[in-house]
Structure formats: C-alpha cells, structure tokens
Task: structure prediction
Amino acid sequence: MTTHIVAVCFEANDPRSLARFWGSVLGWEMADDPVDGEALMPNDDTGFAIRFVPTDAQKAGPNHIHFDLTSDSVDHQHRTVATSLELGAQRIDIGQRPEEGHDVLADPEGNELCVIPPGNKFLAECGFLGAVNGDGSQEVGYFWSAALGWPLVWDQDEETAIRSPHGGPKFAWGGPPLEPKTGKSRVHFDIAPPADGDQQAEVARLESLGARRIDIGQGDVSWVVMADPDGREFCVLTPR
Result:
C-alpha cells in the first residue's frame, strides 16, 4: 500500500456547525475526530474523511480547493442547491458564465462549492462528491499523482486530474493563471503512510518529489507539515 489521503481538512470558526452543514448536504455521518474538531465519514467510495478544525482566523480570499457536487438530473441539481441554501449557504459570483450551467455557492463560513449540472462527462463515473477541484499548476498535479500513486486521468493544456484506482472523487487542478498565495491555506490535505509504513521515510520521499518541510507554528506535534510544489500546506500523519 502507498500513502493515502486520510482527510480533506477545513479550518473553521465553528467546526461543529460547519460539519453539520456538510454532513446534511452530503448525507455523511459525524464521527469522533482523532485530534480535535469534528469529522465526517463517507458512506460511499469517497475514500477519505472531511475534518473541521478550529481557528480564530477569518476567511480572506478564495480557497484554492473546493468541492464539485454532481447531479443526476436538473431536479437533483435544484434540490441540492435549495437544500444548501436552507442550511445556510449563499449564492456567490466568482465570474462564472450562465452558459456553464453550474451553481456556485459558499457554505456558512464562505468556503466555495459548485453544484454541477447533469450530463457532465468529466465527472460521469464519480459519485455525489464528484471532484476536489483546485487552483494549481501542472507540476502539482504530477506531484500528487506520484505522492499517492494515483494515475493521471486528465493532462491537457496544463490542466491535470488524478483519481484513485479504487474510485471516488477526482482531484483536479486548473493550471495557469494561478491565484497568488496569501497566508496559510484554509483547506489542506491530511495524508499518511500505511500502518506498516514509516513517517520520516515518507517525508523524505515527498521531499524528493518536490515538497518541503515548513513551520507554521505547529509546535511539538505528531504530524509533519509540508508544502507541495505550489506552496500549499499539507500534513503527513503517523502511519495508519
């Protein structure tokens, strides 16, 4: 087994409230978080949890990662949007064009998400949580493909996407132009070696692929904080 994604982690001002929002939208159950905050566990082939950890910092600027939710009909798309709005989401304008057909929302703490219309060929094989979509270079797509051992399923015009051989969402990066990075990312990946792996050996491997260790004031913790080739933070947990 190779290193795997344990969770997509959101910093939240109210972790429990935000976890309840996403749990209701996705239909996932809340679970005890292994460190602090709140966690949601998937009920399908998603393959990773969603964690919400506390922060006092307010969201500033767009996230470099957002979720794309799929629809199997126009009615399904409308119901997903209506449910999200009832739970506290808002419609936002990020420059999307009406002909694109997707709804762009922000969750109660301003984290962006897209509800994709039916018939989207790129996400045709994916579940409701169709993609973890982000701002990122071709290099970072290659990095995560090598880091996780996931094949590239899209590599065109510097846009890349990878997907686990076991299914689940696609992880996609849109290529240039990239948004400038300002401060610490509000959303990051938690990854870990398999149970029989070695954390420090994995950190060294990730460094050889283009990542680097960073200090964000984490102090004496069991995980290692690193940055991918685009400078986006992620955490390497102890083997599990």
Q: What stands out?
A: Residues 74-86 form the longest helix (13 residues). The first strand starts at residue 4 and ends at 12.
